[in-house]
Amino acid sequence: MNNQLLAYPKVIQGGTYQITIYLSGSIEKAKSVIREFVFQNGLCVTINPTTFIYTGGEEEGYAVGILAYPRFSAENERLDTLSKELALKLLQETFQWSALVVNDTTSIWMTLRKEKE
Fold first, then answer.
1. Helix/strand/coil for 9
2. Is residue 59 assigned to a domain?
3. Does some domain include residue 83?
4. Crossing angle, helix 27-41 and helix 76-93, to 10 degrees?
5. C-alpha span between 61 and 74 (Å, rounded)
6. Mean pLDDT in residue range 67-91
7. Which residues 6+ apart lie within 8 Å of 70 measured at CB?
8. How far is CA 79 from CA 54, 63, 115, in A?
9. Torsion of CA 64, 49, 60, 65, to 10 degrees
């Protein structure tokens, strides 16, 4: 048996909390932005391609999942703050107009568009 492996797995348990950020645009550019962000903030995220179908159109995008991952323990409020920071960073660095941040109780739509007067 390899001396670097444990005979039994180490188990860390924590509460469950999930946040999803939805954006359209290039998933490859998003991955690059996310890699930098998670490295700086100690997060574990998922990213999956998705298709948005809406009245009058359709476009490709992605969903970023932020999880309460016991290895990078954080309170729900901290995860909410980080998810909004990541959404804003993705908006700015992937040149998108809007994002949707959804947690267990709230949906937040963020936009960089100026309101028409």
1. coil
2. yes
3. yes
4. 140
5. 27
6. 88
7. 12, 13, 14
8. 29, 16, 29
9. -10
Q: Residue 97: which of 108, 110, 106 has the closest Cα?
A: 110
The two three-digit tokens of residue 30, written as one number: 């998003």
CATH number of the domain where residue 58 is located: 3.30.70.120
Alpha-carbon gap, residue 20 to 117, rounded angstroms: 32
**By residue range, what is the domain housing residue 59?**
18-111
Of 39, 46, 57, the C-alpha closest to 22 is 46
Q: What is the pTM of this model?
A: 0.85
What is the rounded CA–CA span in Å between residue 30 and residue 22? 11
pLDDT in tens, 30-54: 999 999 999 999 888 999 999 999 9
Decide if 97 contacts 111 (C-beta within 8 A): yes
Which pLDDT does position 13 carry in this prediction? 80
What pLDDT is attached to residue 70? Answer: 75
Q: DSSP letter at 116?
A: P
* CA distances in angstroms from 111 to 37, 88, 90, listed in the order given: 20, 9, 12
